[in-house]
Write a structure and sequence with these properties.
The longest helix has 16 residues, at 159-174. This protein starts with 14 loop residues before the first helix and ends with a helix. It contains six helices and seven strands. It has a seven-stranded parallel sheet with strand order 3-2-1-6-4-7-5, with helices on both faces. It has helices spanning 15-20, 36-48, 66-72, 87-96, 136-141, 159-174, and strands at residues 24-31, 51-57, 81-84, 100-104, 111-112, 123-127, 144-147. Helix 2 packs parallel to helix 3. By secondary structure, it is an alpha/beta fold.
Length: 175
Amino acid sequence: MNQKTPNEELGRLDKTAFKASDKKPIAVVLDNVRSLHNVGSVFRTCDAFLIHEILLCGVTGQPPHSEMEKTALGATETVDWKYFSKTSDAVEYLKENGWKIYAVEQTKNSVLLQDFVITKEKVAFVFGNEVYGVDQEVIDQCDGVIEIPQAGTKHSLNIAVSAGIVLWEVFKKIN
C-alpha cells in the first residue's frame, strides 16, 4: 500500500542546514513579475531544488511580505535573493560573475526545453512579467532563449508553473 510519509520522516533540512548546503549552480531572475503569489511560489520551488539565488527585478516584490508568504511558506528565509531596479543590471551582474543566461520565452530562434543542453557550470534563467513576458532588451542580453513546448490553445503558462517546469528539467539534467 502507498501510505503517505509522515513529515518527520521526509528528511527535510532545517534553515541552518539549508543555508550551509551546497546549492545547485542555477540562478533565477524575475523580470517585473507583479503577483506576490507567483514570486512566493518561485521562492518555494527554488528551495525545493536548492537553487543558488533569485534576482528580483523592477516591480517584482521583495520579502518580507505577507502575500508572498502565503505561497512561499518560509522559503523567503532560506533562498538567497538580491534586488535590482533594472533586469538588465541583474543580467550584467550575472555575466560579470561567469553565468550563462537564458530567457524563458517564445522567440523565433528559441531552443525547446527538452533539447536544451547545459554547457556551462553556472546557468541563470530569466522569467518574465505575467502579461508581457521577458522584456526584449533583456532577451537581447541573454546567451539564448529556452521555450517550453505547448500543444494547447493558450500557448501561455503561469510564471510560477513555468519556473517549476524549467527548474525541474534542469535539476534533472545536472544531477
